[in-house]
Amino acid sequence: MKQLLIIAHCPSPNSVELTETLSRSAHKEDRLKIRVMSPFDVNPATFLPADGVILFTTENFGYMSGALKDMFDRCYYPIIDDKRGLPYALIVKAGKDGTGARRSCESIIKGLGWVKAQETLILKGECKGQLKDSFHDQLEELGEGFAVALAEGII
Question: How far is Cα 9 from Cα 58, in angstroms, rounded to an integer?
Answer without folding.
Answer: 7
